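# step 3/5: fold
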Amino acid sequence: MVWLIVGLPAASVVAGLLLVATAVRSGGADEVTDDVRRTAQIQVSELGPDEQAKAMNLSAVLSMDDSAIQVLPANGEFVRNEGLLLTLSHPTDSTQDRQLTLEPSELGWRVPAEIGSTHDWIAQLAPVDGRWRLRGRLKAGQRAAHLGPALVGN
């Protein structure tokens, strides 16, 4: 009977404290990498670069090997003599995010880099001025991913 009166409330207090400690140590929610404007309770993300990529009919293939990452154009008219920014975001831990500048190469763009393939990467490709962007997901264990506009349809 004493166990029910003292033990059960004490166990719930300890469990609550452990839950709070776990939540605090988890680091909270990662920030969204998009530019987001807030108006009252509404959040609006800038979709202009996605619309531009869709209008230009752009798509590309991201591939990686042990020493480099390469982007090959698949559709659309890319400006081949300018570098591109590749942002690789970890799905849950923003401390592992990487931003790389790809230089023009014979077939597309390339940068020497070693990126782990033990987890997924969220990839975003854009020119330095950010006028368009392509997005995709490089799944764990895979060496290539399709990058395309975030907007689809008409």
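# step 4/5: annotate
DSSP finds two helices and ten strands in the chain.
# step 5/5: archive (pending)
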